[in-house]
Amino acid sequence: MNDDLDLDDARKRYHFALAPEDYERLPFYSALLGQLEHDDVALGLLAGVRVEQRNPMLVLAALQLAGLKGHPVLGAIYAAARGGELEEPEGAARDVLAVIRETPDVIGDELWRSTQTNEPGRSAVIQAVVRELSVTSAAINVIEVGTSAGINLCFDQFPVRKIDDANPLTLVCDDVTPIDRKSPLPDVAMRIGIDPYPLDLANDDDRMWLKACIWPEQRRRHERFDAVVASRPSWPKATVLTGRALERLDDAMTLVDSNVMTVIFNTWVAFYLSPEEQRDYFNDVIARCANNNVAWISVESTLIPVPGVEVDEAAHVRGASQVVAAAPRSAPVLWGWCHAHGRWLERVTTS
Fold first, then answer.
1. Per-residue pLDDT tens for 34-65?
2. C-alpha–C-alpha distance, residues 14 and 93, integer Å
3. pLDDT tens digits, residue range 247-256?
4. In CATH, what is the architecture of 120-347?
5. Where are the domains of the chain?
6. Which backbone phi and psi does 181 adopt, to 5 degrees?
């Protein structure tokens, strides 16, 4: 093992991989992460990943990918977890760890990838903020930074309910404070995604990787993903630009009608940027909002500082994501906070 690897950093990343509420809901992943943070082989795998992707979710997704590809041990464990039939999560976690110890390359060979959950649940948050920002706009353009397969570019295609129903595309979101869910969403004139490594739902490998990134114990998310794959061909078309945000935002802006408000949004993207890249991206978007018909929605970890916006410590303790918004010709403000996958949303009280 490379002695230069920071195993202590990897241990902390495994330990804090889930929010407190998720540890309670995910017994298999909770047990597995507990095993991984104390195993030198697992620590070395994560510590050896390039820094912008040094996320435990990458290792977890690589494990599930091996299962989806038919690994004799992992296949059965992950299929049982997705089906809600995993009776002994602690024992299953030990079996997974044994695979890692015996054949680490099964996982290591996939760690060149990037975690791209493209979680559609975040569209419940995007819808709520868009309604406020576009109250005087009948139509908008949207530009998603970190678009992956572009699922959230079609944020307006998902019904949002407080209680689940029979529709697999329904997003279940508990609005902790009053949230407008009844006003019509604006028409979307143009949808543009930007991503250095965009994925295509029509590509078998891309589709399998996206499924591997979904936590196996959350059957509802897997059902929704399958429904998205089936529905996406009938949804509005989008333009996807390959590259980093600062490289392609100007290109994206030239494609839209400047007379129509453009909403730029990012959800759990800044986490994968260096501090310098975060600062440059935030400052660029803030300047666009201050001087143009551009609005911004940012849903990111509270560990990521946004210039001019104070981090809410209460939200940080809860493991929440911080929702920041900027209206055209305005500075960004703390809009509220939410679960990282949009399971709940809370609006900051406004005066």
1. 999 999 999 999 999 998 889 999 999 999 99
2. 14
3. 999 999 999 9
4. 3-Layer(aba) Sandwich (3.40)
5. 7-108, 120-347
6. -115, 0
Measured in residues, the chain has a length of: 351
* DSSP, res 120: G
At 75-127, the pLDDT tens digits run 999 999 999 999 999 999 999 999 999 999 999 999 999 888 779 999 999 99
Pair type for strands 160-161 and 171-172? parallel
Q: What is the pTM of this model?
A: 0.88
- Phi then psi for 156, rounded to 5 degrees? -85, 0
pLDDT digits (tens, 9 = 90+) for 176-214: 999 999 999 999 999 999 999 999 999 999 999 999 999
pLDDT at 1 over 60: no
To the nearest whole number, what is the mean pLDDT of the chain? 93
Nearest to 79 by CA among 217, 194, 249, 203: 217
Residues with Cβ within 8 Å of 278's Cβ and at least 6 positions away in sequence, in order, are: 270, 304, 305
List beta partners, residue 193.
144, 240
Closest-CA residue to 100 (of 23, 50, 34, 43): 43
What is the C-alpha to C-alpha distance for residues 113 and 107, in angstroms, rounded to an integer? 11
Matching residue, tokens 């999560």: 89
What whole-number distance in Å separates Cα of residue 117 and Cα of residue 114? 9
For 16, 111, 191, the CA distances from 239, given in Å and listed in that order, are: 36, 28, 6
Q: How far apart are the first and last CA of the chain?
A: 56
3-state secondary structure of 191: strand
Give the closest residue to 51 by CA, choosing from 207, 277, 244, 208: 277
pLDDT at 313 over 90: no
- Closest to 175 measured CA to CA, from 1, 10, 343, 7: 343
Neighbours of 53 (CB within 10 A): 15
